[in-house]
Amino acid sequence: MCIHPPAVKGLVGAVMGIDKIDLYKETSNLKIGIQVLSPVRKDMQTLKLVSMKAERDLFSFPVNAEFLRGPEYRIFVSWLPDKLDELEERLKKQKPVFTPYLGVSEYIAKLSYETRCDTEIINGANSVESIIPSRFINIQHSDYHIFTDNIPVCNNEKKRVYRL
């Protein structure tokens, strides 16, 4: 399991102070690349949740939750120049508008800025260290190291997350 693009957009939105209602529209032209830097370690725990919908008869129920342990990622972004400038400045100064977190507010994300660089389009590569849809991979050799997971890659204005 890995951080997925809609979650990265949420982190960017927290840093930039984008209201969650406007997040889809404000980040629609944000392009994201994700590199996994640490081994993916997960553990499953059963939590007891309390329903807050019922006014009188509160009830609890068990839920299995999967947690990542010590995840580290390098996030690549391409965006409008003025937005990229502001994001870069906020990350360099460690001044997000809202506290960035992963999943629930108790899991605060530690973000750091690395660098800004130019990109170029290439035709073919010997290796890719990013998350890419498997349909773009043409496996013709047996020496590839490929790890797969099902993650959401897109969302829409109604915050519905889906795969392409």
Q: Please, how many helices?
A: 3
- Overall mean pLDDT stands at 81
Give the helix proportion (percent range): 10-25%
Q: Strand percentage, roughly? A: 15-25%
Number-wise, the strands total 6
Shape: globular
Order of neighbouring strands in the sheet with most strands: 1-4
Walk me through what this model shows.
By secondary structure, the protein is α+β, with helices and mostly antiparallel strands. The protein is 17% helix and 21% strand. It is built from three helices and six strands; from the N terminus they run ααββββαββ. The longest helix is centred in the first third of the chain and has 12 residues, at 5-16.
Structural key phrases:
164 residues; two-stranded antiparallel ribbon; two-stranded antiparallel sheet; 17% helix
Strand-helix topology:
Layout: H1 5-16, H2 23-26, E1 31-36, E2 42-50, E3 60-68, E4 73-78, H3 81-92, E5 154-155, E6 161-162
In short:
By secondary structure, this protein is of the alpha+beta class. The chain has 3 helices and 6 strands; from the N terminus they run ααββββαββ.
